[in-house]
């Protein structure tokens, strides 16, 4: 296995059905937003579904969705070739090369393997920052992952409108300050927002993430779910976060 890894890489145990992922700190490693998004998708979906993850990076969301759903197929689409190669090796170490397909492609021109009107679910943890916001190196892997250089919200919606089945669902995680623009664009592309859930670092702080579910061709009607609070007064994870991560809860400090 050591020969399977490249310089700077490590294998992390996801704590879910013995799944593992290859990570490299030089690239954009996954964080809590990917974990929360996968959980949000899993609680709003059921049955044998076909899922595609846009901007899959090192494949964290496909792996988590494999562990949390009964998906018939899971595809990850990624434009950055080094991340594609790393994600594919993660599928190899998990023995999931037939269950999870990692494609090298552009969301704007994904290629023939991505079939229109085929997917039940499109999911994405997209770049949060506008292309011109603090941009330093437009070709840097971390910059591409954080800034809307190669993938904007509108690109995701164009893709989703074309590739989702009728009544198929789009799941996103994003920053609350972008929410008004996101909802407006979703309605423009005939994807109606159905569920929102705000995530708060603590009960005393403003929300820093929002989980979004939209339905292609859906009727108007939005539900906001109970807020998800990450840390309690003692600085420990709240019970919900321990449950989402599948970790043992602390004995004290409930939220």
TrEMBL record:
Methyltransferase small domain mapped to chain residues: 35-174
One of the record's GO molecular function terms: N-methyltransferase activity
InterPro entries tied to this protein: DNA_methylase_N6_adenine_CS (IPR002052), SAM-dependent_MTases_sf (IPR029063), Small_mtfrase_dom (IPR007848), tRNA_Adenine-N(6)_MTase (IPR050210)
UniProt-listed GO biological process terms: methylation
Record-linked CDD domains: AdoMet_MTases
Highest taxon of the lineage: Bacteria
Protein name: Methyltransferase small domain-containing protein
């Amino acid at each position: 296995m050591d020969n399977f890894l490249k310089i700077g890489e490590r294998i992390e145990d996801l704590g879910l059905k013995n799944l593992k992922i290859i990570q490299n700190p030089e690239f954009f490693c996954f964080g809590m937003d990917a974990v929360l998004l996968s959980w949000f998708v899993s609680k709003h979906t059921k049955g044998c579904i076909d899922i595609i993850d846009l901007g899959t990076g090192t494949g964290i969301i496909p792996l988590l969705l494999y562990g949390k759903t009964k998906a018939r197929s899971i595809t990850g689409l990624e434009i950055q070739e080094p991340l594609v190669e790393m994600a594919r090796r993660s599928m190899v170490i998990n023995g999931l090369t037939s269950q999870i397909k990692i494609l090298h492609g552009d969301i704007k021109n994904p290629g023939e393997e991505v079939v229109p009107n085929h997917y039940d679910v499109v999911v994405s943890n997209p770049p949060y920052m506008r292309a011109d916001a603090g941009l330093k190196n437009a070709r840097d892997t971390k910059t591409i992952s954080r800034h809307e250089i190669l993938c904007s919200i509108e690109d995701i919606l164009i893709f989703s409108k074309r590739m989702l089945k009728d009544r198929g669902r789009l799941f996103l995680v994003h920053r609350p300050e972008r929410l008004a623009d996101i909802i407006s664009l979703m309605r423009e592309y005939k994807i109606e927002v159905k569920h929102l859930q705000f995530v708060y670092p603590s009960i005393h702080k403003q929300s820093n993430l929002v989980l979004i579910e939209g339905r292609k061709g859906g009727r108007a009607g939005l539900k906001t779910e109970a807020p998800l609070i990450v840390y309690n007064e003692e600085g420990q994870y709240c019970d919900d976060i321990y449950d989402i991560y599948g970790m043992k809860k602390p004995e004290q400090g409930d939220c």
